[in-house]
Amino acid sequence: MDYSFKEMIEISEILEEEPRIGKIDILQQKKTNKNNTKTKNDENEVDSENEDKNEKDEKSNQVGWSKKTFTKAPLIIPMVPLSSSYKYHHKDGMTVTEEKEKKTAKYINRAIRLSNNNFLSLEGLDMVCEKIIADPFKNLSWIDLSFNSLEEIHECILKFDNLKTLFLHANKISKVTEIDKLAKLPNLRSLTLHGNPLEEDKNYRFYVILMLPQLINLNFSGISKQERIGSKGCIVNNPHKYDKKKKNY
Q: Which PANTHER family does the UniProt entry name for this protein (predicted)?
C-alpha cells in the first residue's frame, strides 16, 4: 500500500486517503456487500408496506367505500441537509434520516509505504493500521517511514511483531538511544537510519549493531562479523553513554 507524497502531518490522516495499491480483503468485502444487501432488502420491505397502505387509502376514497374520520396531528417533514452522508427511507408515512457510517475497506498487505510526508510522530499508527489492514500485526513485515520529520521512535511500532524491514532514513532522530526500543522486534532484519542527526556520531553504527543483534542489514549494507566484534570493543561498559548530559561544575 502506497501512501507516499500525500503531504500528511498526522497519522490519522491516512484514513482520509486512498492507497495507490492494495488488495482488498475479500472476506471483509463480502461482509460489507452482505450488509448492504440486507439494508436494501429492509428498505424494499418498507417500500412494499407503504405501497399497500397507499392502495388501501385509494380504495377508501372511492365511492361506495365506508369512510372513517380520524383526528391527526399535522404532518411535519424535518428539514435535512442534502448530503451523501445521509440516507432516507419512509416509516409510517414519515421521512426518516439516518447518518451513514463511513466504512473503510480493509486490505491484505505485507508492506506499507508512508515515505515523503511530514509526519511528526508515529503515535496512533497501530490503531490506523488495524482499520485499513487485515490483521496488521501479523501480516505487516515492511514499513517505509523515510523522508518524514520524526524525532523519536514511538513504542506503537513494537506491536508489529513480524516486522522485518523498517526504513527510517532522512528523518530528524538525534538521540541514538531511540534505537534501543527496536530491540523488542525479534524479526527485524533490515533497518535504515542514514540522513538522521544521529549519524554525526562516528560510533552510531557500532552502537546500533550492538543493541540490535538480530539485524542483518543496516543502511542497505550487510553487517559483517568484524563489525559485530568491533561493536563490542567500541561500546565497552555503558552502551547509553551517548545519552548522558554533561555536568557543569
A: LEUCINE-RICH REPEAT-CONTAINING PROTEIN 51
**What domains can be seen in the chain, in order of their start residue?**
11-18+108-243 (3.80.10.10), 26-54+85-104 (no CATH)
Distance CA 166, CA 186 (A): 13
Rounded distance, CA 172 to CA 184, Å?
22
Nearest Cα to Cα of residue 145 among 173, 177, 112: 112
For residues 239 and 249, what is the distance between their CA atoms, to the nearest angstrom? 24
- Reported as a single tens digit per residue, the pLDDT across 8-31 is 999 999 999 999 876 555 455 555
The grid cell for 186 is 525479534
CA–CA separation, 188 and 237 (whole Å): 25
pTM summary value: 0.66
Quick: pLDDT tens for 193-249. 999 999 999 899 999 999 999 999 999 999 999 999 988 887 654 455 555 554 443
Are the CB atoms for 192 and 169 separated by under 8 Å?
yes
Which cell is 57 given? 387509502
